[in-house]
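lol forgot to send this yesterday, sorry. struct tokens for the thing we talked abt
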């Protein structure tokens, strides 16, 4: 995989999950710990064999595929793939577009966000939940993969809470980078202020 620094990856599909989404796991085995880094600007994390690195990544067509700068999803996916290329682990690609409201609804909320409504309130204004994602499906995928004890690559405390509630042992969290642009400053501020995302930056200003 080019986005995983040329590492070979195994793509795993699932049957019998709690919801009908076509969720996918991308697995990369650990490298030799003495091998030179593939991505020198990423600090090495090491790869404890009993707690592999895992990223839960919710599908974002606009960010992951089209490179939208109004979110940080594409850069976070690239970082996750680079991380597991270095250290081994898994990216679970969850079909939860728009924090669970779907692509068309998400595009509708963009019109509201263009009028300076934050991303969570925009969801509510179209009659949907601020964040409808249920990570029980991710826990089921991890159990199927026999990954019951993990380190989680995330800034989102809700992912940690839900995985633990579903019986997955999260031994540590690894923060993702901050991918701040002029277009996504308000979006990142809303994530920090509304849902407690741990973002390694000073106060962000929501667009007035």
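and heres what i got for the seq, position by position
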């Amino acid at each position: 995989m080019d986005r995983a620094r040329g590492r070979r990856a195994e793509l795993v599909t699932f049957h019998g999950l709690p919801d009908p989404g076509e969720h996918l796991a991308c697995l990369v085995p650990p490298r030799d710990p003495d091998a030179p880094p593939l991505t020198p600007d990423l600090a090495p994390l090491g790869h404890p064999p009993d707690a592999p690195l895992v990223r839960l990544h919710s599908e974002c067509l606009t960010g992951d595929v089209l490179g939208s700068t109004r979110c940080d999803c594409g850069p976070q996916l690239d970082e996750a793939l680079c991380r597991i290329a270095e250290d081994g682990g898994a990216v679970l690609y969850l079909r939860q577009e728009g924090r669970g409201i779907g692509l068309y609804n998400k595009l509708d909320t963009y019109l509201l966000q263009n009028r300076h409504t934050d991303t969570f309130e925009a969801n509510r204004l179209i009659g949907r939940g601020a964040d409808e994602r249920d990570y029980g499906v991710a826990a089921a995928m991890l159990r199927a993969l026999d990954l019951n004890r993990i380190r989680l690559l995330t800034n989102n405390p809700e992912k940690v809470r839900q995985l633990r509630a579903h019986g997955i042992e999260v031994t540590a969290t690894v923060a993702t980078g901050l991918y701040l642009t002029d277009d996504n400053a308000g979006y990142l501020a809303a994530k920090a202020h509304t849902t407690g995302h741990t973002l390694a930056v000073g106060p962000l200003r929501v667009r007035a």
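The helical segments are 61-65, 73-87, 103-113, 119-125, 136-144, 157-165, 185-195. anyway ping me if u want another try
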